[in-house]
Design a protein that fits this description.
Elements: E1 3-10, E2 13-18, E3 26-28, E4 34-36, H1 44-48, H2 75-82, E5 86-93, H3 98-114, E6 117-122, H4 128-139, E7 147-155, H5 167-174, H6 182-187, E8 198-205, H7 214-226, E9 229-230, E10 235-238, H8 243-262, H9 293-298, E11 311-320, E12 325-330, E13 342-346, H10 351-360, E14 370-375, E15 393-394, H11 395-402, H12 411-419, H13 424-435, H14 437-445, H15 451-457, H16 465-472, E16 479-482, E17 493-498, E18 502-504, E19 508-510, H17 512-531, H18 538-552, E20 564-570, E21 584-587, H19 594-609, E22 618-626, H20 636-647, E23 654-662, H21 673-679, H22 681-690, E24 694-699, H23 704-720, H24 724-736, E25 740-744
Helix pairs in contact: 3-8, 10-11, 10-15, 12-13, 13-14, 17-18, 21-23, 22-23, 23-24
Bound molecules: flavin-adenine dinucleotide, NADP nicotinamide-adenine-dinucleotide phosphate and flavin mononucleotide.
Enzyme class: oxidoreductase
InterPro entries: CysJ-like_FAD-binding, FAD-bd_FR_type, Flavdoxin-like, Flavodoxin/NO_synth, Flavoprot_Pyr_Nucl_cyt_Rdtase, Flavoprotein-like_sf, FNR_nucleotide-bd, NADPH_Cyt_P450_Rdtase_alpha
GO molecular function: flavin adenine dinucleotide binding; FMN binding; NADPH-hemoprotein reductase activity
């Protein structure tokens, strides 16, 4: 074993470079802090990924930590093992990482300011057994006097639903319910386990949804009923407006109260980081993890795939039309989906963005150097340290796969940046931005400026790489797409449809996942063109180089591998009624049409394959809206052809009608889907109120879904002869009966 270097201590992180055959090693630093190095790195699959045959193109990745089975240790065991009488235990439930990020930040800041150790726990690890054991421990005479404060960072989803990872936790508290209903508030049984808990709570939601912050509110009510004591007000973050500001305000109020609870005075954290050093990268060669490919392939059919354990699916189709990307992925035997579910995918950052940040950090020559960051176990934040990514890895891998390079810098991060400015004017300017919300909003939030942008502008900032990785760059998050195929028609192939996100700011901004898919498409096209010169296009072959270099450089001699995507199937509540005779109305402008393509294909398939041929009509009406019939009309040929066949009586039992609304059609007045709904009001009312029909709305949550809901209420007023209150109640009842479903984002 050769330890190459121990380079730096940053906020409790120690930066290691290690040699190929590093074994379990304890290093005594000058500070006397004991450090354990993880050894799994050097051999086995990591080495295989360094250029072994069969090394496929790594198109995306997720943290290894989530993939390697480890013996389960409950949060209570972890907390007890810390042996601290003052402790902060923070639970988060998160779908796309925000609640996790806030819990991490809260833990870190409280620890830095007050020296109280913290644990940050995914709420999926919480269980009645552990909580009951905690209660027993509290009541036992032998337990040392402990001042533990619990914190809850809870996101709400769907229509007042818990996140995927907190479904069991939610059921434990609120019975078999899967989403908010006002009945839950009344019926939830108090939990003795919480009787003497002291806690803080921050709920995350979005006020455009009907059940704003439902999970946080429900849990808070249950805690009050159980006898728990909340410190400060319950925070509520509104993702539609200013979640970050809501958090900062809540945190500023609650932290001093927590300190008072612990009997502590605040420390000064502003200078705490100044002693951190820049960790240079060594020229040593360690076989790094380049992604998770090999490991995932090994157990591809043996496990349940989920957000923490993706399946690497082969791309069987990827088309880029003028309107959208259409991706098809092969599923292995045993992995199934239902029509209307979602597929979650992981993408990676483009090479030019990786290089730009590496340059801004002064690390461009070190991009292919392996590194490892290991938490200093003695530091108070050790227990709350956010999980990073598999290490050792190269900086290129870390920046390409594991972090979000586009993320807009948060206000507190601007302040952190200021601490590393060498130039006093730049330091003052960064502190001014950090201290004044208006200036921050104008210069950073609104123009969506990233870490790279700021490092380029404030060139005297010498940001240690470890600080950038740990404190400045959020983890790359899964992206969800509604499945646009039918599970009946193609059970082993799942399709998704995505509009490539591209919009102007100070410069052209490109969505991470959709641009990456576009690049993969271009790479595949170029690869095909290499075999068929007639398909060649110069721009796509340039793309292939750009995309593939970062991943295949080390194995350039290998045959071109197939293309794959890390993905999992996320179940939804957005499914067609089982009764084929119930009429179905679908409202899906823009990308909101994606699941309806699956719905339409499903019913068409059912009509085709019904044995004996079903004669009962299956009625499907699609209200589709886009800008222009010749520009962004998704599935135009497919839908119009089917509607025409249906009108001609050629689709058997299927009666499919397409109603379109174009908003930017050659100077004609803007028409939206709700305008068309209103025009078809009598029929819509008859289907919903008289024929037991189902209404589905998919797409934009911020305005469209609410406008459609108002229109349906207006239709009930007009055709049902009721006043507005009665109409609202009737529509609410439709929802309660599961006949008005929304899938919005
Ligand atoms: C349940 C669910 C289902 C979904 N289904 C689909 C689907 O079927 N098809 C589909 O295409 N998408 C769907 N989405 C959205 C999808 O998950 C991604 O958010 C989307 O593709 C963008 O991802 P990206 O990585 O390309 O963009 P990102 O890198 O994540 O960038 C997107 C961000 O860019 C910003 N942005 C975008 N446009 C602008 C603008 N004009 N001005 C300013 N800022 C802007 C916004 O902050 C936005 O959040 C769904 C989302 C959810 C939650
Ligand atoms: N560059 C392009 O050609 C292009 C095309 C499609 C999408 N996009 C981008 O792709 C992303 C996803 O877009 P998307 O396809 O989901 O949606 P979208 O294209 O933004 O919108 C789909 C349709 O819904 C309309 N709409 C807007 N507000 C509405 C409301 N309150 N009620 C009902 N309909 C409403 C839009 O009209 P108006 O917008 O005309 O008002 C448009 O006709 C967005 O960022 C979008 O900007 C770009
Ligand atoms: C598909 C979808 C459904 C949502 N449903 C709700 C909801 O019913 N109520 C609510 O308050 N917020 C809702 N939200 C907003 C999220 O709670 C909010 O964006 C939150 O910040 C997400 O946190 P996370 O990143 O930790 O998952 C929804 C968001 C999405 C994308």
């Amino acid at each position: 074993m050769t330890l190459v270097a121990v380079l730096s201590l940053t906020a409790g992180y120690v930066w290691y470079l290690q040699s190929r055959k590093l074994k379990q090693t304890r290093i005594q630093k000058a500070t006397g802090i004991g450090l354990t190095l993880d050894t799994r790195a050097a051999s086995g699959k990591a080495a295989a990924s360094d250029g072994a045959a069969g090394n496929a193109l790594r198109t995306s990745a997720t943290p290894r930590s989530a993939l390697t089975p480890r013996p389960h240790v409950s949060w209570l065991d972890k907390a007890i093992a810390l042996k601290h009488s003052d402790l902060l235990v923070l639970f988060y439930s998160s779908q796309t990482g925000t609640a996790n990020d806030l819990a991490d930040r809260f833990a870190e800041e409280f620890t830095e300011n007050y020296g109280v150790h913290a644990l940050v726990i995914d709420i999926s690890e919480e269980s009645p057994t552990t909580m009951t054991a905690f209660r027993r421990r509290q009541l036992a005479d032998s337990t040392p006097k402990e001042r533990w404060v619990f914190g809850y960072f809870l996101s709400t989803y769907g229509e007042g639903e818990p996140t995927d990872g907190s479904v069991d936790w939610f059921k434990w508290h609120f019975g078999d319910a899967t989403q908010y209903t006002s009945k839950l508030l009344k019926s939830a049984e108090p939990k003795d386990a919480y009787a003497s808990v002291t806690y803080v709570l921050f709920g995350l939601g979005n006020r455009t949804y009907e059940h704003f912050n439902a999970v946080g509110r429900l849990f808070d009510a249950l805690m009050a009923r159980s006898g728990a004591t909340r410190i400060g007000a319950a925070g509520e973050g509104d993702d539609d407006k200013s979640l970050e500001e809501d958090y900062l305000k809540w945190k500023a109020g609650v932290m001093p109260l927590m300190a008072a609870h612990y009997g502590l005075a605040a420390g000064d954290s502003r200078d705490a980081l100044d002693a951190r050093l820049q960790p240079p990268l060594s020229s040593s060669s360690v076989p790094p993890y380049l992604a998770e490919w090999d490991e995932c392939l090994d157990d591809a059919t043996a496990v349940a795939f989920n957000q923490k354990h993706p399946y690497y699916a082969r791309i069987t189709g990827l088309a880029l039309t003028r309107e959208a990307l259409h991706l098809e992925l092969a599923l292995p035997p045993g992995l199934s989906y239902a029509t209307g579910d979602y597929v979650g995918i992981w993408a990676c950052n483009p090479p030019h963005a990786v290089l730009a940040l590496a340059q801004a950090l002064g690390q461009e020559t070190a991009l292919d150097q392996p590194f490892e960051l290991v938490m200093d176990a003695a530091h108070p934040s050790a227990s709350s340290a956010p999980a990073l990514f598999p290490m050792p890895c190269t900086l290129r891998t870390a920046l390409a796969y594991y972090v979000d390079l586009h993320a807009t810098l948060k206000q507190h991060q601007v302040e952190l940046l200021g601490r590393y400015a060498q130039d006093t004017d730049e330091r003052d300017a960064l502190f001014a931005l950090a201290d004044h919300r208006d200036a921050y909003t104008r210069d950073i939030l609104t123009p969506q400026r990233s870490l790279t942008d700021l490092l380029v502008q404030y060139s005297s900032v010498k940001l240690p790489l470890a600080v950038a990785l740990v404190h400045m760059l959020p983890r790359n998050q899964v992206r969800y797409y509604s499945i646009s195929s039918s599970a009946l028609e193609s059970p082993q192939t799942v399709a998704l449809t995505a509009v490539v996100v591209r919009y102007p700011m100070v410069r052209i901004m490109e969505g991470t996942a959709t641009s990456w898919l576009q690049a993969v498409h271009d790479g595949m096209t170029a690869q095909k063109a290499a075999h068929d010169p007639s398909q060649s296009s110069s721009s796509s072959s340039l793309r292939l180089n750009a995309v593939s270099v970062s991943r295949t450089k080390r194995s350039a001699a290998l045959a071109p591998p197939p293309f794959h995507v890390a993905m999992y199937i996320r179940t939804s509540h957005f499914h067609l009624p089982a009764d084929l005779a119930k009429p179905v109305i679908m409202v899906g402008p823009g990308t909101g049409v994606a699941p309806f393509r699956g719905f339409v294909r499903e019913r068409a398939y059912q009509a085709q394959t019904a044995q004996p041929k079903s004669t009962a009509p299956m009625r499907l009406t699609l209200f589709y809206g886009c800008r222009h019939p010749n520009q962004d009309f998704l599935f135009r040929d497919e839908f119009t052809a089917l509607a025409a066949q249906s009108a001609a009586g050629e689709t058997g039992a299927l009666q499919f009608a397409l109603v379109t609304a174009f908003s930017r059609h050659d100077g004609a007045p803007k028409v939206y889907v709700q305008d068309r709904l209103r025009q078809h009001g009598a029929d819509v009312y008859a289907q919903l109120a008289q024929q037991g029909g189902h209404l589905y709305v998919c797409g934009d949550a911020s305005r469209m879904a609410q406008d459609v809901m108002k229109t349906v209420v207006a239709i009930y007023v007009q055709y049902g002869g009721m006043d507005e209150d009665a109409a609202r109640l009737a529509v609410r009842q439709l929802k309660a009966d599961g006949r008005y479903a929304e899938d919005t984002w």
